[in-house]
Amino acid sequence: METSVEIQNRLRNLFESQKLAVVATQTGGQPYASLVAFVATADLRHIFFVTARTTRKFSNLILDSRVAILVNSSVNLESDFHEAVSITVTGIADEIMDHERQDILNLYLAKHPYLEEFAKSPSCAVIRVAARSYYLVQNFQNVMEFHIDR
Amino acid sequence: MSWIISAEHIRQADGPRVGGKGLALALLARGGFAVPKTLCVTSETYQEYVSRTGLRERIILELNRKAFKDMRWEEIWDCATRIRNMFLRKPIPDEISNQLKDAIHSAFKGKAVVVRSSAPEEDDAASSFAGLHESYVNIQGTDAILEHIAKVWASLWSDAALLYRQEIGLDVKKSAMAVVIQEIVVGDKSGVAFSKSPNDTSQGVIESVYGLNQGLVDGTVEPDRWILDRRKKTIISHTPAERKHWMIAAESGVQLVALPEKMTHLPPLNTNEACHVFELALKAEKYFKSPQDLEWTYRKRDLVVLQSRPITTLSPQKNGDKRSWYLSLHRSFENLKLLRQKIEHQLIPAMITAADVLACQELTELSDQELAVEINRRWKINQKWTNIYWEEFIPYAHGVRLFGQIYNDAVHPEDPYEFIDLLTRTEMASLERNQMLADLASEVRNHPALAKALSAGQTEGLDPQFLEAVDRFVEKFGDLTCAVTGGTQCEQAPGSLYKILLEMAAHTPSETGRQTSKNKDALQEKFLSIFEGEKKKTAVELLDLARSSYQLRDDDNIYLGRIESQLLAAVREARQRIDAYHHRQSNKKIAAELIQVVENLDHRPQFQPPHKQTPDDGFVIQARQLIGQPAGPGLAKGPARVIQHTADLADFKYGEILICDAVDPNMTFVVPLAAGVVERRGGMLIHGAIIAREYGLPCVTGIPDATTLIRNGDEVTVDGYLGIVTIGSSEL
């Protein structure tokens, strides 16, 4: 079995190698999935993404801050079934305001420099997700859970 | 695209397309050597077949469900079996098969052939590991030949090939298999020849048997052996074999029969012939410019080369590399028949006698010194039988695997383990034990007063008949506290037995498993109806052998357990004496030898420590869904009962999921109480899987760290169809 440190490294590597994640939100019991550019902190406690305030996912988040995020390394080949690693993160989202916003944007733009104009737009919100649990899927169906002790 | 080519059209550059054997045969024919008529199905045909049928992706999925490093040989064998079944069930697309049929028909005109593997890698690395892939002798008719081509393709993924996957560079995306189809040459005598001996470079070696080569190659027929001088081309020595059998062509396939009396006194080759064979080997060496390992046969006076390959020397096996031992477990039907005779008529009776003789000895009458000697003696007896268990009984268990392969070849079932249903409900000793236990439990169920007394721990004043039955049980099978073999520190106490009886009495154990016997007759009919005449006789014999092999898998452990319990009895006597002295209940000084002998005994095997629950750095790991091998179909949910020690079995409750390292036949008595079985040790034919199937319970085997990742009381779902174990509820 992999140790906690090995698993955390695996999560970090995946978060660094992947630019996009799928974010799931809900309203009135109707789930909704969207693709976002994300960045994770090295301690794996937080995941950030930027969204326009006009989006459905943003309005869903205002009503219910619970989210699930999926990051995976699939490349659309058969080999994905045994080679791809996928992580589902569950957690609580909130919007970052004021001075904190700039620090987070620096972290975000270091990974996604091409999104500067979008991310800095006043119509966009910087969303922070405090991760509660990670669900790591490997070898097609092997699933391990990791719960962050808060 | 040409999917099949005739030997005369093969050029050196075709090596990768036709494989080592195919190329060597084509070159031999061109060099004027007498070789049988040969066609070669190219490796591209294999590639096209696995691409068009989608098998390539299915093989990838099958091979990647678990890391190889976490797989036992049994799991690798299962994996190979499932892949083989995919090849058997997926027909070759018409466009390819029509071309193959036309070429085969026009080349052989209905004559029998040999279908051989010819892996492109075979001329180098793989040739060092002979026997990784399959070859089939005496196959007749285009449909049968096509089916055997698929079998040879499947053998690219044989358990042997998977074991040596690194050495031979096995890779699903690149590896392919060419197939050689040769007209069969039914020789009077056959053999192999090494133009240069691996042991002495100035010598060559010839081995020869009467009849076909198959008996020599698979080790069933002992060959005569000649050592020759390479320079003088003369015989240095001849070692005759004990000539008893020979392999001859049957209606289809081959058959081992007794050698006619007058031939048993004559070596298969005379001096002249041995020298001819050797000259042929030297000629091949000269032609290929490297020492050759030649397979040949004499048909009347004609000496024919069947195949030739460069001699490679095996690098010495590393310490702890058990792979060749695993492969030695593959036994032919003939070999298993001989083994069965020995086991049923010699070994098992001797084992029972050994245990009975030990049981008759009154240990309390021995002096300390005598007891020390007795413990050592019993330890040696136990060791002797443990060795026999590994050397004779475990290989015999391969009878089940051989039957499975023949069953799958004949029936092409959707479930490659359907054959097990034909073998279950045989009278295994463990089932007899479980039945006795069930009878005791029903006594408790029917007599509430008895149940009440047992719950309260009162054993005095109980019905003497019941106590007698308990005694009979304990005498025969022990009291369940020491049920798992492997330990000399076990103390017996009837409390565990009563606990289990109460639990069994409170519930009527499931009877669902019994329904498999209804299918049994239908399956048997389905299997046997495929064969006719002599072949049907063989199929009946094989089924009988498989049942005996299946039964022995359990019984041998029970018999071995009886011998071990006699060793334990002697150790217990010694401990009691030592304890009595320490607790001053006795003033008699204990002899030093006795103390020494008890201290020297092996201690119980250490169990893995339970899963660490303490979070490190605020990051708590928990298993959610674990992948193993599907070993018993069905779906079950229940609280986990993790067995770390034998004593934990006594706490087993009805409806729990049994989680253990390995189900020992001696612990199967809790299985009727269980809702499902999860085992770390993997395989479809291990005891846990067999007994779960017997009782119709969902079972998943081969879950690494099962007993550490799953904790007592965890809610566990066992998916025995997919081989998945899910831990915890669905809430996040």
Q: What would the keywords be for this entry?
A:
heterodimer, A: about 150 residues, alpha+beta, six-stranded antiparallel β-barrel, 7 strands, about 45% strand, B: about 725 residues, Dna Ligase, domain 1, D-amino Acid Aminotransferase, Chain A, domain 1, 4 domains, eight-stranded mixed sheet, six-stranded antiparallel sheet, 24 helices
Report what the structure shows.
The complex is a heterodimer of chains A (150) and B (732). With 150 residues, chain A is an alpha+beta fold. Chain A has a single domain, classed as Electron Transport, Fmn-binding Protein, Chain A (Pnp Oxidase, Chain A, Roll). Chain A is 30% helix and 44% strand. Chain A has five helices and seven strands. Chain A has helices spanning 4-17, 56-63, 80-83, 98-111, 116-120; strands at residues 20-27, 30-40, 46-52, 66-72, 86-96, 124-138, 142-148. Chain A has a six-stranded antiparallel beta barrel with strand order 1-2-3-6-5-4. In chain A, strand 6 and strand 7 form a beta hairpin. The longest helix of chain A is centred in the N-terminal third of the chain and has 14 residues, at 4-17. Chain A is globular and about 45 Å long. The mean pLDDT of chain A is 91. Chain B is α+β, with helices and mostly antiparallel strands and 732 residues long. Chain B folds into four domains: 4-183, 2-Layer Sandwich (Dna Ligase, domain 1), CATH 3.30.1490; 189-310, D-amino Acid Aminotransferase, Chain A, domain 1, CATH 3.30.470.20; 331-604, no CATH class; 625-727, Phosphohistidine domain (Glucose Oxidase, domain 1, 3-Layer(bba) Sandwich). In chain B, the strands form four sheets. An eight-stranded mixed β-sheet of chain B has the order 14-21-20-16-17-18-19-15. A six-stranded antiparallel β-sheet of chain B has the order 9-8-7-6-12-13. In chain B, helix 3 (55-63) packs antiparallel against helix 4 (73-89) and helix 16 crosses helix 19 (495-506). The two termini of chain B are 56 Å apart. The model of chain B is unreliable at 483-489 and 603-615 (pLDDT under 50). Chain A binds chain B through residues 1, 4, 7-8, 44, 78-79, 81-83, 90, 133, 135, 137, 139-150, and chain B through 56-57, 60-61, 64-67, 615-627, 704-705, 708-709, 722, 724, 726, 728, 732. Strand 7 (142-148) of chain A pairs antiparallel with strand 14 of chain B, so a sheet runs across the interface.
